[in-house]
């Protein structure tokens, strides 16, 4: 049974680790941007006049438009320390995310193995149940026809009841391992019901 790798991203622990990684990466970007000059465009207009008569004339008006440059010259040590700290936090977030994803896939692989094994066992148990049921029906029919004694009917019925109990236990185990797989994937996985499980539901 194969599953798309995107399914593990639905797990809460993987989502949380991924969010922390994105946040740490963004912080590195912010710390890096702090090294660049801060340029602010500003404009102002003033007036200069020497008499009331020409106060509103065009030559009396002053315009000033230009950038304001703020260079972090004396903050280099602090900025470098901040950047190094953010990069270290990002590396830690990467390791945490990687370990979280690997652990998630290990749990998924274990759950898939257990589910596949339970399905295989259930299939064999189901075959045994059908065989014992057929044997019981045949023994009962032969007894009714007088072709065999009642002890044969009792023996085949006991085998049928035993296999029926084993089938019920096997079905429960299969469903339990499927739930474990569902939980390992973080939920939200839709699966197709097998004909055997549908017939015994």
TrEMBL record:
Q: Name one GO molecular function term.
A: efflux transmembrane transporter activity
Per the UniProt entry, the signal peptide is none
Pfam families according to UniProt: OEP
Entry's family note = Belongs to the outer membrane factor (OMF) (TC 1.B.17) family.
Q: What is this protein called?
A: Uncharacterized protein
Native source organism of the sequence: Gluconobacter roseus NBRC 3990
């Amino acid at each position: 049974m194969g599953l798309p790798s995107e399914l593990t991203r639905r797990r809460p622990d993987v989502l949380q680790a991924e969010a922390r990684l994105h946040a740490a990466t963004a912080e590195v970007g912010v710390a890096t941007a702090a090294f660049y000059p801060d340029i602010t465009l500003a404009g102002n207009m003033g007036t200069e006049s020497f008499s009331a008569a020409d106060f509103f004339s065009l030559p009396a008006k002053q315009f000033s438009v230009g950038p304001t440059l703020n260079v972090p010259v004396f903050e280099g040590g602090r900025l470098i320390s901040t950047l190094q700290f953010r990069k270290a936090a990002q590396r830690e977030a990467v390791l945490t995310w990687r370990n979280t994803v690997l652990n998630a896939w290990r749990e998924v692989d274990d759950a898939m193995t257990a589910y596949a094994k339970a399905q295989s066992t259930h299939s064999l148990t189901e075959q045994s149940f059908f065989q014992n049921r057929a044997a019981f029906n045949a023994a009962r029919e032969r007894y009714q026809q007088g072709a065999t004694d009642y002890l044969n009917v009792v023996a085949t019925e006991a085998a049928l009841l035993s296999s029926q109990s084993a089938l019920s236990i096997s079905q429960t185990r299969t469903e339990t391992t499927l739930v474990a797989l569902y939980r390992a994937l973080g939920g939200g996985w839709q699966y197709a019901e097998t004909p055997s499980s549908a017939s015994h539901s």
